[in-house]
Amino acid sequence: MKVSELTIEQLKVLIDEAVQDKLDEILGDPDEGLEVREEIIEKLKAQRKHRKKRISGEEVMRQYGLESK
After folding, report:
1. Fewest Cβ atoms nearer than 10 Å: which of 13, 33, 43, 61?
2. Cα–Cα distance for residue pair 5/38, rounded to 1 Å
3. How confident is the model at residue 52 (pLDDT cuts 50, 70, 90)?
4. DSSP 6
C-alpha cells in the first residue's frame, strides 16, 4: 500500500508507531537490568488474584438475562 492510499487516521497511526519505535530505539528501557523488589512482586500477585474474581460484562448480562439478540 502506498502512503498516498492511506486515510488520515491510518497515516496518523503509522506516524505514531514510527515515532514510538524510534523513541524506544534511542531511549531503550530505563528499567532494563533492574531487579523487582519482593514487596512489588507480592502486590502484583495480589492484584492478579483480585482480578481473577472479576467477571466479564457479557457474563453479567447473561446472569441478569440481558443478552443481546
Report:
1. 33
2. 51
3. low
4. S
